[in-house]
Amino acid sequence: MNPARVLVVAAALTAALAGCGDEEGLSGAGGASSGVGGAVGGWDWALPLGVPEPQVPADDPMSTPKVELGRRLFHDKRLSGNTTYACATCHVQERAFTDGRAHALGSTGQVHPRGSMSLVNVAYAARLTWANPLIASLEQQALLPMLGEAPVELGLAGKEQELLARLAAEPVYQELFPAAFPGESHPISLVSVTRALATFERTIVSFRSPYDRYAYGGDRSALPVGALRGRDLFFSDKVACFRCHGGFALSDAVVRAGSPGGVVEYHNTGLYNLDGQGAYPPDNTGVLAVSGLPVDMGRFRAPTLRNIAVTAPYMHDGSVATLDDAIDHYAAGGRTIATGPDAGDGSKSPLKSELVKGFSLTAREKTDLLAFFASLTDEELLNDPRLSDPWPQMP
To answer: What CATH number does the domain containing 198 carry?
Structure first.
């Protein structure tokens, strides 16, 4: 999508969130509530000591009815134009809310140029999507898969009223929407849908892995020796994974309760160099597609590494099949298959990114790093019934 088109779509999504008239059933979800963060509504995040609460918008506070409504909407195929897809189709709980595809597949069969990002700890993300710095809230982001047309994901553009009619006909929603948005004259609205989805997604927090039990729970037996060595490598200057995947979220810039968050950065990890000048495929140019600035070619957001062992394939386009291959990519200082400047012997060398400098690992060090990645898997999250599909399963 060209930069101008991106800006037009972003403006349209922002306008939709602002409300489109109460008579049309598209109004906002009411006035702003006081307070921010986990204190809103007294929500219990059940976080370990040392992990901050997420920041919660004042006009979309946490509540049990809204979380339950959002969970049902997240797993409901009525949220696609042809009723074949739900949010959960591309964000599968057992895969840490990814889908195992290199490229996401929309409800109409259209292939997305990027993979489905994990929703784990998305409540802390300072920006959403792989490479759009304009999308800063979950409420805003929810409209992209719903109404986006390039590519089509859920395919609801032009079918907003049809969606609302479907939801209004469901007895469960006739109870849940008013409970989640009390006092609203039209509780079943597009904005209410996005706010409920965002509220549920904020509950997808992951801090119960072996690594968390070691780092935050004081359980010194939670990590085997190899994983401990891998942790030290991860946070070392030699490998420097932590520079993009640091902090409690093991990701880039975060927001937390009471804090606006750090500087949001996007990174070129040397994945492509199609022309010797660092070009990426035309449908995957990163932030460049939004900014139009050549310096943003190939820059993407660093996702969380939590539960990374169950979210293959890797990179924004799924072009790296395994964690073993991902380590090799960074160790090589960029893709060795890239076409770059002549190396002097007739071959072509990869164009180095500003970020990936390369390093060397022994076989044991690589095994240790993989063991550390495995320790980031939160099995309780992957099987938590509070996040699972609440609808009766059809035979």
So the answer is: 1.10.760.10
